[in-house]
Amino acid sequence: MKSNCTIGNFMLLLLVMEAHVDAFQSSVSDGTLGTRNKGFRRSNNRGIVKNRYLWERHYPEGRSRTSIQMDRWDGDDIRWTSRIRRKLSRRRMVLDTSTRSQVKNYLIALQVVMYCYQILTTVVYCRRKFPSYWPNHAMEIIIDSIWGSAFVSGPLTTTFGFSAAFSRAQQSYRYITSGLFHNSLTHLLIDIGVMGRQPIWLASGLGAPLYLTCFFGSIVIGNLGHLMNSTDRLFDPKIYLGSNGGICGLFGLMFVCLARMASANSSRNSGPSTDQLAGMVIMLFLAIWMDNVSMASNIGGFFGGIIIGVLCGPRYTKDYAMRRKNSVEFDRASNAYRSAMGFGIMPTDSGLIPLKLLYSIVLTIAIAVPKYRSIPVAIIRGCMGVM
């Protein structure tokens, strides 16, 4: 008897509670929840409707609040200073990517344009020097000028090519200009072919300033190496051309970067890559095969690239935020650069000597020394005088 009463009382309690809940929900929906605290409950009702509207607006159907927040998450550091710094860095990377990825193409195009100008000046020079050959042997002269086998050297070759004897005659511009001209079409095609096969991250990852500094700096250092290796500096009129020293310098920079990546990432092989070995073998074979290509200039350019890489190249460290579990840290590196570095490795912003400081030193020396100060004027006069 007692058990039946207990069950009956429990069922009655459930019915009463359900009735109270229904009444409360209906009063909340129409805003008539009694007279006490009526204003508060009406405002609370408006807040509920507003929150429901905001929820449906910001979190559409099929997406959870957690997933939306993760999409808007800008790294695992929520400090406002870190957010601003990351946004500025991201914007700077977007603005610089197109320039850095195209610097190699610009250098290749510059060498092709200079070789076309070299062909044109050679044809004009042969026509003026041998007027009797021009009407009847014009096609032979043009073909020989294209292949680089003309019976006389063109004016650009004699004006801007590097020679141990000319380098001592107040013609310092030859240290740089010799890397922009080539002996023949075969020489040009081999140089731009090896340069085009170099890894993309050398230009897109390291940046245009370091890439150009290594290229032209290695040309100068390579010519210095040829000058030091020359047995007769006063009476050596042989002219050397080509960007071999700059290309070998880029291989030297690549060697330094790969070695530093391997020291930061233990899972990576520390030896030179296959592309690097193949490119250096081609450059050395080209110096043996062609007469106007210096072996000492190639070796000097390679060591020049190593020096520039050690002094101005970036170092590589492990990034803590990127290696965290479930981290969404923003990766600034390109795919090719990330593949070379490995996971969780990031480069530093600058090397031992910042490039701005190096440029300031070079500019100060160029302004202070008269023979270096006259280099731009000498180059302009040489280009205008050959025509």
TrEMBL record:
Pfam families: Rhomboid (PF01694)
Gene Ontology CC annotations of this record: membrane
Transmembrane segments: 106-126, 200-221, 241-262, 296-316
UniProt keyword terms in alphabetical order: Hydrolase, Membrane, Signal, Transmembrane, Transmembrane helix
Topological type in the membrane: Multi-pass membrane protein
Subcellular location(s) per record: Membrane
Record InterPro entries: Peptidase_S54_rhomboid_dom, Rhomboid-like_sf, Rhomboid_protease_S54
Gene Ontology MF annotations: serine-type endopeptidase activity
Name of this protein: Peptidase S54 rhomboid domain-containing protein
